[in-house]
Amino acid sequence: xxxIRKPWPMAxxxxxxxxxxxxxxxxxxxxMLSDGTTSLSVTTDGSGVYSFNACGRDYWVQxxxxxxxxxxxxxxxxxxxxxxxRTTDQYKNYYACGWGIFEHLTxxxx
Length: 110
Description:
By secondary structure, this protein is mainly beta. The chain has one helix and nine strands. Strands 1, 2, 3, 4, 5, 6, 7, 8 and 9 form a nine-stranded antiparallel beta sheet that branches.
């Protein structure tokens, strides 16, 4: 697979071009941060109430409620976690990066 990153005002978009024939998958919406149990929608556009860095990229938590969720996730995130995007295929996600026990999810469509 070949991954091409294209800018989009509200979130990063990845156009995923499969090596085999068929429609390309496109990541849609905001990135999601997960500790393996809980997921939280975050942004990459610089707006929000709290910023953090994951896999060498800055992300922002959008609301005070989201920050409370993030604080509860943080102990688990210090050990392992991942950032993913939903795609145009409702059965697949694009995993941008993972760390700890989720390191194998870096740059994976599944």
